Structure formats: C-alpha cells, structure tokens
Amino acid sequence: MPMTSNHFDFLVVGGGSAGYAAARTAREAVDRVAIVDSSEELGGLCILRGCMPSKTLIYSAEVLQHAKHGKLFGLDISNAKVDMPVLHKRKVDTIGEFADYRVEGLESDKFTLFRNRAEFTGPNSVRLDDGRELTADKILISTGSVVQVPSIPGLRELEGVWTSDEVLDLDFLPESVIVLGGGIVASELTQYLNRIGSKIIQIQRSEHILKEVSQEASSVLEKVFREEGVELHTGTRINSISKTDDGYKVVFEKAGETVIRKAQHLFNALGRVPNTHGLNLEAAGINTRRSGHIKTGPYNQTDNPNVYAAGDVAGPVEIVHVAIIQGEAAAKHATGRKVREPSDWNFLGVIFTDPQIALAGKNEAMLKAEGIDFVSADYPWDDHGRSILMEAKNGYVRAFADRSGTILGAEIVGKDAGELIHAFSVAISLKATVVDLLNTPWYHPTLSEMVTYPLEDIADQLGLEY
C-alpha cells in the first residue's frame, strides 16, 4: 500500500508473530496499516532465533539419540554422530523457508513497512529514528523480548558469553559448556547440546529446573538428564564467574559447600525480559508492571485506550500462539469488531525436552489457589504397551476435573506429549466432561489412549457412568 501521508488507521511497532498477526487482522477492516520494525532481519524471534531453529535442532538430536541406542530396538547402527556443518545448513535452509514467507507478507502492498526504530512522542504518535513522525488512530506494541543479563558478579563484564542466539547458530561441536539457568530454553538446549556430544554442566538456582511445571514433572526430566550424562546442579547460589585461559570458571554454593566448575564455553540462559528500551512509553501514558511487561487489561489494551501491547512485551508467557491470539484480539477490538472474551482462552504449553512436558488448562497449584474443589488421577508411562515398545517409559499423564466431571486441566510428561495434550486442550475449550472423552473411540495401541486411563479413574471417583 503506497504511503500518501504519515497517518494510519492502525500502526504496529514490531513485526514478529504478534505484530504480524495484528497487522493482518486489522487490514481485514481498515485500509491504512503500517508496521515499524528495526530488526536486522525481518521474521521475528520465533522464526529466526526461537521456536523453529530450536525445534529443528532438537529433533535432529532426538534422531541421533535413537541411533546411538539402536541396540535397544534390535538395530546395529555404527558410528552415529553429529555432522555440525550439515546440521547447521539444514537449520538455515529450514527456517529460511519460513522467514521468506513472513518477509513476503510484511513487504506486501497490504501494509506500509518502515525499517526503523520508533519512540512515542504522544498518546497517538511515534517518531522514527530518521526523524519522521507517524500518527495513528490505534497503535499496537509488539517489540518482543531480549536476553536478560542478571547482576551476577562477573557476568556482565565478560566477553564471548553465549545466548540462545549463538547456541542455535553453532556450526561446530563445542567440547564443553556451562549452562546458567533451568528454564525452558536452558533445559531444551542443555539436552540438545548434551545429545550431540558436548560435555554439559547445568547450574540452576532453585531446587528444581522448570519452575513453570510441577515438581513431579521437573523431577522426571532431572532424572533423564542425569542418566544421559548432564552434570546438573540445583539449589545453588553463584558467587562469581570469570574467564580462564581456555574458557570460563563458575564458583557457586551448593548444600553449604563451595563448588568450582570450568568449561570451554558459557551459555547465559537465565531468561528474557520485555523489550521496552527506547520506546519512551511515558510519553504515551503507558505503564509497566514490576516484571517489566507492559501493563494491559482486557483485549490487551494498555492504560492508554488507543494503544495495545501483545506478545512477549506484554506477557504473561512467552508463547507464540498466545502472542498471535493477543495480537488478533487487540486488532479486532481496535477496529470495533467482536472479540472472544479473554476468560475463554485456556492455557496451553509445551516444553520440547525428551520426554516432552505439556500442560493444558489449570494445574494443581492453580486449582488450590483459586479454592476450586477438584479430583485428579494419573497414569504412568511405563505401564502401557505402546510406550514400552517405543522405549519411552519416562513420564505420566495426569488430569483434573471438577465434581461434575468437567475437565479443568491436564499435565502430560512423556513421548510426544506436545501432540497428545491437544486432546485435553480441545476438551477444556469445549467444557467437555470425562464421560464425553471416555465415550469417544481411542485406537489401540496408541499413546493417545493413555489419556483415557486417568479419566476412567476420575469417573470412578465421582461415580459417573460411561
């Protein structure tokens, strides 16, 4: 769409998943839509440095793991090892296809694209870094997040510390890596690096990795990590980080003792923070929360009713499908269309470790905090024919329901949990009961049929017939 003035119906600052979804949705209702994006490469975090590259590499590492343990399946696969230049090229080629498609959309004549940085100068206006002023009836902020560098002694001063960007772009096999952190990115890439052949030392502050999930779920993964050779330290406090002649040294406290570990490389995986630097939010009357996320209400409106925020910059989670939902809802609301109530959005999350961890709806902690009367049941992964023949014996499926049998949430830890969790996600969205799912055919032998076993237990607890 050729630009004839500097005023727009809808202006997006940040062209990642949330921003592109919002711009596309707004364009359905209004003509003048602009996108401002200052990144070196168009495409967004998910495509370029997040979901797609990480899952491409993680899947290759999973295939390698199966090959290395071929004898478990009656196979003799000799000399299975990673070819890093080829693996790197496959990743580049794979994400290139996704990025090209996104760039084509951003650069289409549906939008006016500005390759600039922007800062607010008023409630409905921004100034670009080339001096141009833009105004809009409605504005969406979707500038994403950046890597967090905590004030750990020595960390901010060191050069050459890796972030997920560098790990996902490796074209060589690192000899050894210290991973700082135990969140989703840290844990996914710890297992990836370990499986391709690096010596990995993972250091986590809390007693368990993956604070986003239950202790039972994180314990399953901790057991697998240690069995696979990861040197995992939890319940720690880092005292200092320094450079050595051939790498890095981390000094930390664990169980009252001082521990020193050295490695060739250091990977800062201590989380991300909202990317609001330089936006001058105060000029637009926009406030942030203590977490740094932009404060939003229903439909992702900020304290300025003409400005919305979506994706990582708004939170509360860094999940792409949530960012897209937020962006689309904001654009629909901004253009006066009907929007699904935010209370109808049910949580869905997947962690791509092996075993995978997947969550839908509310977990036990949420249900207890909200005072909801519930029943639950679980079923172990090592007691089912399909998982046993796949040598996928670590994990469980757990379900939660209210006293009427309506399904409230679920947690699956196991092989392909990210695929299986959608049975629960659909059920929760449709407000289905355990009886509804039990009256649905489930093929044998499949991993999916394990979903029914805790549901049978819940139905029995509640005296429900099926």
Q: What is the CATH third-level topology name of the largest domain?
A: FAD/NAD(P)-binding domain
Radius of gyration of CA atoms, rounded to a whole number = 24 Å
Task: Name the average pLDDT.
Answer: 94
What separation lies between the terminal Cα atoms? Answer: 57 Å
Number of helices: 14
Number of domains: 3
Name the shape in a single word.
globular
Class of secondary structure makeup: alpha/beta
CATH architecture of the largest domain: 3-Layer(bba) Sandwich
Give the CATH level 1 class of the largest domain. Answer: Alpha Beta
Notes on the protein architecture:
The longest helix is centred in the first third of the chain and has 23 residues. The chain is an alpha/beta fold and 466 residues long. It has 14 helices and 21 strands. The radius of gyration is 24 Å and the shape is globular. Strands 1, 2, 3, 4, 5, 6 and 16 form a 7-stranded mixed β-sheet that branches. It starts with 6 loop residues before the first strand and ends with a helix. The chain has 3 domains: 148 residues, 3-Layer(bba) Sandwich (FAD/NAD(P)-binding domain), CATH 3.50.50.60; 107 residues, FAD/NAD(P)-binding domain, CATH 3.50.50; 115 residues, Enolase-like, domain 1.
